[in-house]
Amino acid sequence: MxxxxxxxxxxxxxxxxxxxxxxxxxxxxxxxxDATYYQLSQPTVRLGRLPEAQQAMAAYQKLxxxxxxxxxxxxxxxxx
Length: 80
Description:
Blueprint: H1 2-12, H2 16-29, H3 34-46, H4 50-78
């Protein structure tokens, strides 16, 4: 979480490169956390690295859908 929050803070301060570094560390530690990919797309866009931003957003969308399915399956499994 520290890398994630640091990345967000660096982005707010205008340090896109530093934000990417911290958010990449967060991504490596928690590859299934969808918010990290969304946050990672922001500084990559600012730096004009559009293919990377698109990849991050695609991963974000995929994880959002995957997490929805897992939640739905969990709720259905809990039904009597």
